[in-house]
Amino acid sequence: MATRIDVTGLTAYYGKFKAVADVNLTIEPKNVTAFIGPSGCGKSTVLRTLNRMHEVLPGARVEGKVLLDGEDLYGAGTDPVNVRRTVGMVFQRPNPFPTMSIYENVIAGLKLNGVRKKALLDERVEESLRGANLWEEVKDRLGRPGAGLSGGQQQRLCIARAIAVEPQVLLMDEPCSALDPISTLAIEDLITKLKSSFTIVIVTHNMQQASRVSDTTAFFSLEKTGDPGRLVEFDKTSKIFTNPTEKRTEDYVSGRFG
Amino acid sequence: MSTATVSGPAVGDTADRLGLRGQSLPRWMPLAVAAGAVVVSLLIYLLTPVDSEIQIVLMAALGFVIAMTALSTAVEGGRRARDRFATTLVYTAFLLAVIPLVAVLVSVIGKGAGRLDAGFFTHSMNGIGARDVGGGIYHAIIGTVEQVLLASVLAVPFGLLVAIYLVEYGRGRVSRVISFFVDVLTGLPSIIAGLFILAFWVIALDQGFSGFAGALALAVLMIPTVVRSAEEMLKLVPNELREAGYALGVPQWRTILRVVVPTALPGIVTGVMLAVARVAGETAPVLLTVFGTNLINSNPFSGEQSSLPLYIYSQAGQPQQSAVDRAWAAALVLIIIIMVLNLAARLFAGRNRLR
Asked: What SS3 state is found at B210?
């Protein structure tokens, strides 16, 4: 059920500002791809173009093609709502719905899209929470507010919420940057486990994390502030971190950037 | 590198060589100074020809501020003295703000409580002559409740939809224009709202005076308040929640309905309650559109009705003491109704915030 993503000639704008220019890359199914690079290089922007979340911001637009198993996400007649059901997303800061319980949070995507059958919902809650390694911790308090969990648990709740709608691809925008090392480890283990059923793309500032969890890595960078970010190198993670082709990649991964 | 010495609490307790603690006045000193200022003022009151209580109170307050600031400057230094001075100003401002509220409550309770009995709530003014002592506010309560309820039914959904449009959808010129007109409407004098409905609904459309006409006028006053408060509350909902909804493949309208509005609901309810409380006390628009009557008319869609503000206005204008007493009692009832509404709004908001 996992899907391959082909990005060709992708350029993203915020109003008049060109944030990223001419990105070409291919994300293999059932693979973890990490986006790394300095702040402002456009890696989060590229991530958000993969499920049409980029255009949610006023004035933001995209040029180029993103193919999901050959289907153009930006083609005429493509419904962004359907795209987002296929390509799920986890954000930098855990954002469970504050008015909903843990149970309601997990099934929010299903329920808000009209699924009503209690048995199916119950089943999906357990499945998703187990999938997100959270079931054992919350199974006795599913009725409690989701906002009452710890930060790491909230982030796993958000992952459970994202996988409950059974997407093909899971995008993660710095999912561990607000978490402590133990919660980070829990999420990283989870990513490795989820890899067997989803195509995963993760943006991270943590290079150890990229090298630990990803199979392929994309390094983005920008010449100077105000210039658009560009894809510098895209290759197997092992190659990027041990023997990169580009000098700039080597400088960045070895900590000699700037 | 020097070796760090960790001194126990006893060491350096009296010395304070680094001057970290500074000199400070004992905690009872402000109270003592206040007592001193009061005593001095009382002596002036008793011994000198100054015989105005207000002047004495002002003197005591001024004496306290001067003595406290001087003492504090001498002992604690300029920064703490300024702090104490500002603290005193804040408390004084608070007292000044509370005085009118307390004064209104005390006089209304004092003058209105005597007339509050079961008969007052269960009777109208039907057949009560100018010199009669009885009569009640049954018809006025019915009128106020029906008019305010109708006004809310008209204004709340409308105002909420406008607020949702402004926050969630509105971009560019249209939303700026709407926002501007909402601001203009906020400053609309209530009697103008009444005149508008009188000219438009009652006279031009020939609908006659009715509770519904009053509700229309009140709704005109409520809409901008509801829009503004709901708008502020919707703006407070973090964008991340909207994005979380979209990222789950939930359409925008559903995200708004099921995620954004429920998150902002306690604040929206508080805003609505405050708007309701505000229009419940409006007299001018009701005077022009509902007209007022002494009879019980529970049908808001036809014929004149009464309402509490209108009742107070008409009774207070009459020369007989019995009518004035009725006005005070009705004023007390109106205050109680509005206070209960405010408290309910606060309780609701507080309860939801605890989650």
From this structure: strand
